[in-house]
Amino acid sequence: MTRYAALLRGINVGGKKRVPMAELRDVLSGLGYTDVTTYLNSGNATFTATGDAAELTLRVEEALAGHFGFPIDTLVVDGPYLRRVIAACPFPADELEGKQLHVTFLSEEPGERFAAVDAAAYAPEDYRLGEKAVYLYAPDGLGVSKLGVELARPRLVKGLRATSRNWNTVKALAEITGA
Fold it and tell me: What are the structural domains, with CATH classification, of the chain?
């Protein structure tokens, strides 16, 4: 059995795509997953299950769409992956506030998709690619980040599942999953 985190994209924002955390826990428990917990109200859940993360992602998305009546892009990642993301952080995470550092989790390796993005044009903001991840340093936070907007453009993420979390959430999910 492995501990996983399910990262749901674009829920509970502006009153749209409402997903109560109690119902999210019920859906995941209904799939036979155990030790189901949620973190914050923004689409983070952890659970214990057997199976491959990609396979679990599809099962969770199907169950959520069936329960809530709308599709919810989801990524399921395991604790060891979260540990690798934290260990590989190219920015001085211990020196930054959690709101200044973000990770966009991707369903596949970023490849050359982001090569045309000129990080220098957005300084002091910066980004680096990682294992199925994009690290973003946004000193004033994601809400005002121009580089964050550029990195989320459809031409860059088309065909991918992608969802971002601030560094505090990444660390918390790693801890909850036992990483």
Answer: 2-80 (3.30.70.1280), 88-166 (3.30.70)
